[in-house]
Design a protein that fits this description.
Layout: E1 2-6, H1 10-23, E2 28-33, H2 36-46, E3 50-53, H3 62-67, E4 75-80, H4 84-92, E5 97-99, H5 104-120, H6 125-135, E6 145-148, E7 153-156, E8 161-167, E9 170-175, E10 180-183, H7 187-194, E11 199-203, E12 206-209, E13 213-218, E14 222-226, E15 231-233, H8 239-248
Parallel strand pairs: 1-2, 1-3, 3-4, 4-5
Antiparallel strand pairs: 6-7, 8-9, 8-12, 9-10, 11-12, 13-14, 14-15
Length: 250
């Protein structure tokens, strides 16, 4: 795979080049760049299969550079220091990212996934979703979260998710219409992504969309009754928090 590295720190570029040379023999670095303008020129000139892209750079950031390109036809692996908004946006579209300093095993896994997508010539729907997310970042009603299963990656508006349920290291999504999707990622990852969309963690095993909460039932323990008549438990530690939050917003 032809690859380009875009990062504003020369040491990071050199370190990644060495890691790729040693551990990813199927990757050929054809160009490097230290800012968004140089990166854009390198991409248009070399037409790479894979781009390693830093998010935070002087001037235009990595997201802005992507938005300036006409229909990106390559895979992207973000390589970045911790950036809460940036990582949340990338996770929302299920795109691979690596935190600095880079862990070799994570680099190899990300490259293998990119190689598989490149070989099968699949449309990069996750990157397309990220660009739409960035374009409409202030219009949450238009956002879609990527839910990758074994067979496909589904793009779902958070307003279509009634609740999420933890099942070991998997998360089950109950959607409007009765459909259920099981994703091989833990619930806590989706709590971080969906909190801004009105979801409440009422129990270790449940994350609920508050727009589907019909009432609070006072039985042996507090239970949430949903619009579809399903009942979701509220943990003892969360009772007062959930009650106060729902009453405050009623």
């Amino acid at each position: 795979m032809k690859a380009i590295i875009i990062d504003d720190e020369p040491n990071n570029i050199r370190n990644l080049e060495l890691l790729l040379k040693e551990h990813c023999s199927n990757v050929q670095v054809v160009a490097t760049a230290m800012n968004a303008d140089e990166g854009r020129e390198a991409i248009l000139s070399h037409q790479p299969d894979l781009v390693f892209l830093d998010i935070q750079m002087p001037g235009a950031n990595g997201f802005e550079m992507l938005q300036s390109l006409p229909e990106p036809g390559f895979e992207v692996i973000f390589v970045t220091g911790f950036d809460r908004y940036g990582i949340q946006a990338v996770k929302f579209s299920a795109i691979d990212y690596l935190l600095k300093p880079i862990v070799t095993a994570e680099l190899k896994t990300a490259v293998e996934k990119a190689a598989h997508k490149t070989e099968t010539k699949k449309r990069n729907t996750q990157l397309e979703n990220l660009l739409k997310f960035l374009e409409k970042k202030d219009h949450k009603q238009d956002h879609k979260i990527a839910l990758p299963s074994a067979k496909e990656t589904r793009f779902v508006n958070p307003a279509q998710i009634i609740y999420c349920e933890a099942k070991n290291n998997y998360t089950s999504f109950r959607l409007t219409g009765g459909e259920q999707l099981v994703i091989s990622r833990p619930l806590y990852e989706y709590e971080e992504l969906l909190t801004d969309y009105g979801f409440l963690r009422c129990h270790n095993s449940y994350l609920v969309n508050r727009i589907f909460i019909k009432s609070i039932l006072k039985e042996d323990s507090t239970t949430l009754l949903l619009e579809n008549d399903e009942r979701i438990p509220v943990s003892r530690q969360k009772k007062e928090y959930i009650k106060n939050l729902l009453l405050k917003n009623s």
